[in-house]
What does this fold into?
Amino acid sequence: MTALLIVGLVLLLLVLRQPLLIILLGLAGAVQMIWGRGQLDYIVEDMWVALNKEMILSIPLFLMCGGIMTRGSTAKRLIRVAASLTNHIPGGLGVACILACMVFAAISGSSIVTMLAVGGIMLPAMKAAGYSDRFAMGVVLAGGSLGVVLPPSVPLIIYGLVTETSIVDLFKAGLLPGLLLVVLFAAYAMWANRSAPTQGFDFAEVSAAFRAGILAVMMPVLLLGGIYSGYFSVTESAAMALLYALVVEVLVLKEMAFADLQHVVVDVAKLAGSLFPLLAVALSLALVLAEHRVPEQMVNLMQGWFTNPYTFMVAVNLLLVVVSCLMTTTEALLILGPLLAPVAAAYGYDKVFFGVIMIHNLEIGYLLPPMGMNLLIAMTAFKQKMSDLTVAAVPFLLLMVVGLAILVAFPWITLVLVRH
It folds into this structure.
């Protein structure tokens, strides 16, 4: 009964179009009033306990690093390296866009930052090279979405926080699923442009591109290498990445002035100012729900509906796709993560595996109307209609569904790096 009341309250507040902060506060207050003897002051105490975690510092640090790289010349240098390696194959510029998005996503941890930084350069370049507007826009949208699942993804960090799952393990688990999408997207780019003219392989250009872009290419090696080797924690790696970005862009390449840092700091402060209150209340709510055994009641309820793990996984995937159309990834993770992760564990699914599957589903939502964040941002940034953007994204949405099916059918793809 508790679980049904929680779900009903969430649905009511969503129908009333309340902000996420109000929804989370309403849930926490309801749980405390009904099952916690009305001790609302515990909510504030739990919020402090929830935010008193070193790992949370990694979020603004990664966002700062991505902001610096966006304002500097990193995107241009990465694109030049990728283009020099792919100009000789059909759809080479499309493949270069995907590869550049892959590397930039591994630096910034943000889908939107990746799409804007790489898309702002590659979209006009692909159109000038004769690629169709639909394909060029689609590959930019899809490439940007790689920032959701490829480490150091901010959604992966949020999922780890609200479900108390190892973020290092989530980063390891997200790598191969992210690379699977890169392969699928690149294969489609080559097939869709199989008749397009190509250039010969130019070793001199490859060498020149690597000399100009080696510092940018080394960024994800430093960042992810430190995490995977265990030499840095996630927060320490974020701090090192930020320091590296500052030194490279301001002191070495001199593509960014110290005065520009003010704009980066202000942008990150605005984002953190909206995210951290949500995170505090969501983590507080997770503590309250665990204390009152709501996840256990959810498990009992779901097991009455779905008798085996496979039907449960199909139902959850369908639910998450629908949810991703109606709310942002952060909202979905904060509300559903603490509820669904224990249920998945009861069905035998590893929390790390389920986290990647959940985020992959929500990644699809970045390209689905009406709340797809990449669609909404691209409408403004690239002056496109929502209908045109949605049509452009369709082939890549289908590839994402194929990728999701592969991951569900073969869990070892997600877990092999975690277990070793």
Observations:
- The longest helix spans residues 261-291.
